[in-house]
Design brief:
By secondary structure, this protein is an alpha/beta fold. The chain contains seven helices and 19 strands. It has a four-stranded mixed sheet with strand order 1-7-3-8. Helix 1 crosses helix 4.
Length: 319
């Protein structure tokens, strides 16, 4: 399904526009994610907990950009960071906000600690823009036009709603008479047997309170293993980071495939640490280091290139 390139759609807008075609739960992955994370544990977390949303997080250190020089005007890059609150006992995702939303202090709602007891706030996790989403969330999104993005708007909203209670008792008969499409709880699909199973779940350690598993909306966070690779190539900086790291990632992502295409013509004897795509010609008497070449490029003699990213169909003339 394609969406007009004229429209400035966020991920939530895009999902809403194809809502009628979606018949089941959704695995949402952005096309600008470069990662080697195994998705099976993410899917298992979603199924095991009957989660409303599971979000994948990666340790920010895997995308360190401090030594990267971006082409163009010299600008000081300020990396966006998130504050992610997770219950370490059951991996419930309880809080999500950008550090730019706060100045010196961050206030946590008291009921968050009262109801869950433990919350670990992470400041080094990066949202990988990989989500598993229940079908009813897509239905709610289709009816509501309040959200344009998943990560910035819809996800924080749903996370907060976990702590809320329905204004009307849950109607397992799904009556259309009093249906309010703007109330997220009206969209939660759960039959009476499911609810009773969750309420009597053995994960509940308290005799007095219901299990957290019995909450109608349940968000979870899966933190990828520390050695995982995860980069979002959605900015010039992200693009440069991915190209810089491609040499270290190559074997894990591409196996035994060569970084230099067999269809490339390499006449230079001074070429080191480069990736060269097909139909690219590099002439003799050139010195090339740590550079990535796209397809159909031509590099003429007496040329020096280092730490660069050459796009497709580029000709670099002599000297």
């Amino acid at each position: 399904v394609t969406i007009s390139s004229d429209s400035d759609y966020g991920t939530a807008d895009a999902l809403r526009s194809i809502g009628e075609r979606i018949k089941s739960d959704v695995f949402l992955i952005s096309c600008d994610v470069v990662t080697n994370v195994d998705f099976y544990p993410v899917i298992n977390m979603f199924r095991k907990n009957d989660a409303s949303v599971v979000s994948l997080f990666i340790n920010g250190s895997s995308a360190d950009a401090s030594s990267i020089v971006i082409p163009g005007p010299k600008t000081k890059h300020k990396q966006e960071r998130d504050l992610v609150g997770i219950n370490p006992v059951n991996d419930r995702l309880l809080f999500l906000a950008s550090t730019s939303d706060f100045e010196d202090t961050m206030t946590l709602p008291a009921h968050l600690l009262r109801s869950h007891g433990k919350v670990v706030i992470h400041s080094s996790l990066v949202d990988a823009h990989v989500y598993l989403i229940k079908k009813w969330v897509v239905d709610y999104l289709a009816k509501s036009d309040c959200f344009s993005t998943i990560k910035g708007e819809l996800l924080p909203f749903i996370i907060k709603k976990q702590m809320s209670r329905p204004s009307n008792p849950v109607n397992f008969g799904y009556s259309e008479v009093s249906f309010d499409s703007n109330d997220i709880f009206e969209h939660v699909k759960q039959n009476e047997l499911d609810q009773k199973v969750l309420e009597t779940n053995l994960n509940n350690f308290s005799r007095l309170k219901k299990s957290h598993d019995a909450e109608l909306i349940r968000c979870y966070a899966y933190i990828a293993p520390a050695d995982s690779i995860g980069i979002r190539v959605n900015t010039p900086l992200g693009f440069c980071v991915a190209n810089r790291k491609i040499f270290g990632m190559w074997e894990s992502l591409c196996g035994s495939a060569s970084m230099v295409s067999p269809n490339a013509v390499i006449k230079s004897t001074q070429i080191a640490g480069c990736a060269v795509a097909e139909n690219t010609t590099i002439s003799e008497k050139t010195s090339i280091k740590s550079t990535v070449f796209g397809t159909n490029c031509v590099v003429h003699e007496k040329t020096r290139i280092s730490d660069s990213y050459i796009m497709n169909n580029v000709t670099i003339e002599e000297r």
